[in-house]
Every structure is written in C-alpha cells, then in structure tokens.
Specification:
- It is a single chain.
- By secondary structure, this protein is an alpha+beta fold.
- It has two domains: 263 residues, Up-down Bundle (Substrate Binding Domain Of Dnak, Chain:A, Domain 2), CATH 1.20.1270; 76 residues, SH3 Domains (SH3 type barrels, Roll), CATH 2.30.30.40.
- Helices cover 65% and strands 9% of the residues.
- The protein is built from nine helices and seven strands, in the order αααααααααβββββββ.
- The strands form two sheets. The chain has a five-stranded antiparallel β-sheet with strand order 6-5-4-3-7, with no helix packed on it. A two-stranded antiparallel sheet has the order 1-2.
- α5 packs antiparallel against α6.
- The protein is elongated.
- The N terminus is likely disordered.
- One of its GO terms (biological process) is actin cortical patch localization.
- This is SH3 domain-containing protein.
- It comes from Komagataella phaffii (strain ATCC 76273 / CBS 7435 / CECT 11047 / NRRL Y-11430 / Wegner 21-1).
Amino acid sequence: MSLCTSAELDPVTQNHINVFNFKKMKVDWNDVKENVIRAPQIFLQRTNLASTNPSLIDDEIIGLQTNFKNLVTNCKHLQVSLKRYEESAKFMVECGLQTGQSLKSLVADTSKTRSEIDSLFLNKINQYNMVFQDCKPIVIEVLTSLNDRVGSRLKQLESHNKEVASLLRQREYALLDLNKEMLCLERLKAKGNLMTCKEQQKIFTTERKLTVCERNFTKLNRVIKQELPVYLVISKSIIENILQVIYFGTLTVFYELQNKLKSLERDINLHDADQSHYSTTTKNMELVSVFKAKHAPVALQVDSLKICHFYEKNLRNVASNIPSASTIVTNYSGLKIVQEDKDLVCVAGYNFEKINDQDLSFKRGDHIKVLKQEGSWWKGELNGKVGNFPSNYVELI
C-alpha cells in the first residue's frame, strides 16, 4: 500500500500534521526516556536490590535521605504557613475595621432622638477605628519585611534542595546500574564452560561497564556522605533563624495592636458588662455571653499551642531549681504556716490510656490539674478523676 504525499492531502489535514510535527519537535526525549521508558526497569531493580545485593544497602545514606525528605517537607510547610499568616494578619486588621464600621452603624445618625450616651459611644468607636487605621501600615510594613527576608531565604533554600534531590537521584540511578551490571556478570560467569564465544566477549564488556559504574557510584556516595550532613545542619540553622524572625515579627504586630488598644480599655471595657451605658443601648450582656460560648473552645486550643508560651517555657526551665512557695514554712507564734502556689495546669499533647487503676486516662487537648510532680510520672485530676500519668505526654501552661 502506497503512502500519500503531502501534496495529495487537503490543507486542513496538512495543517494538523504541521502542528503535530511542531509539537513533536519540542518534546524532550531524554526526559521521556529517563522517566517513562526506564520506569519499569527502575521499579524492578529497586524491588530486587535488597534480595540480590544486600551489601549495597547503606543505612547511613538511608538515614540522610530520610532527614533530607523531612527538611524538604518542613520547608514546604513553612512556605504555606507564612502565606497563611500574611493573609490572616491582613484579615485581622480588616476585621477590626469592619467591626468598627458595624458598631458605628448601630448608632448612626438615622433619627433625631439620638441620646448623649449614643454620641459618646460613637466617639469611642471612631477612636477604635483610628487605632486600626494606625496599625494597618505597621502590619503591612512587617509583612513586607517578612516576605523580603524570609520569603527570599526560603526560595533560595528550596532551589538548593532541588539540587541536592537531583544529586540523590543520580546516586540512586548509579546504584541501580551497578547492581544491574553485577547481576549480569554473575549470570554469565555461572554458565562456566557452557558459554558461547559471544558470551565470553560480553564478559569483558560487562566488566568494563561494571568498573565505570562502580567508580561513578563511589564518587557520588562519597560526596553525599561528606557534604549532605553539613548541608542538613546549615539548613536546620537557617530554618531556626527564619522561625525566630517570624516569631518576633508576629510579636511586633500584636504588641503594637495591644499597645494602641490599651488606651481604649477604660472606655470600651467588655469585661465590665454591667455598665449602664452598655445595657441602655444594646443587649451587651447577651452579645458577650454568646461570643464567649462560641469562642471558648478555640481560646483553649490557642492557649495550648507551644508558640503562645515561647518565653514562659524558657523561664520555667530557668526557675525549675528555685524551691516552690509550697515548701516555704513560716514559723510564727509556734505555728507552721505553709504558703501554697496556685494550681498548676497542663495540656495533653497525646492520647493516654491508663495501664492500671491508679493511672489517669486523657485525650489530646485535655487540660489536667497537676496535684503532684514527682519524677517522670505526675499525679493529676481530670473531670473529678485522680490518677497518675506520664509527664512527657503533657505540657505545663
């Protein structure tokens, strides 16, 4: 059957062929060969590697690869968290402004019977809006600084991670090639005197390939063992510095906001909901109670986060050697007066099921009252039940 030439084809068909040829020319066939054609071979060789040549399995390299994967995962999570934090900080300021506008609309000048109390409340709401207007440029400045300092460092670290991942892939391919040539040489030598002339020539070719593969694998293996541990240490230090920058940036935002809102605390005090000028304008008591009921579980979860007690934990470690007030005994008139601390409370970081009847079961996030701290097992109370529990499962708050 003869093939038709391009002159015999209609213009539409010829145009489709030209477009297909253009796309075909832009295909990276080396990438296709490496990732598609070689994929079944790589899968089989990985499966058979441990059973055929267990001597090629390097526990040190496996540990380094695991640590590197954790580093890559942490970098990705940090980038996502930084983006979410930026959105949340901007949203917080916008929510403050919108809250002020909503409160202002409650006492808007829609009638001629606005009372003096409403006018006073409106003035305070205007001051509230001014505070958030002043905080908005500060938040934008901090977020811009974080993006410049932290975002660029994370992108640089991500590019370096890609280079390291490429080197690890080269080492894995070299390992599979070495294993393949070793198995091929073993199969040829196992035939002994039954080898043909062609197979004898193939032995010399395989030995040369094996030498090249072994040299390449040894070189990559040495480089990874020498340089990857150093890279992991440096990357960990970079991430720690990034976390500190994010922490103090967050501290700056909330400090400025709290400092500016502090001036309005006397005038707009929701803790004192019995004031007459609140109850006469709106049902403030009901609003506050509903708000607290909805947000109390969230407040407990936020309070249990370690980052919310960044400095308290360090100060607690410093002060751990100082005797507590419960051990201080004051002698006066022949009587012993024992001064007691306030109740200690810890939050559970993991689930724990009691082993015996004297233990205390709890779930992650539960707040436990600490009754006694002794060694690695403490005594506490939860929901009226008293028992012992491991101290490494909880965090003091």
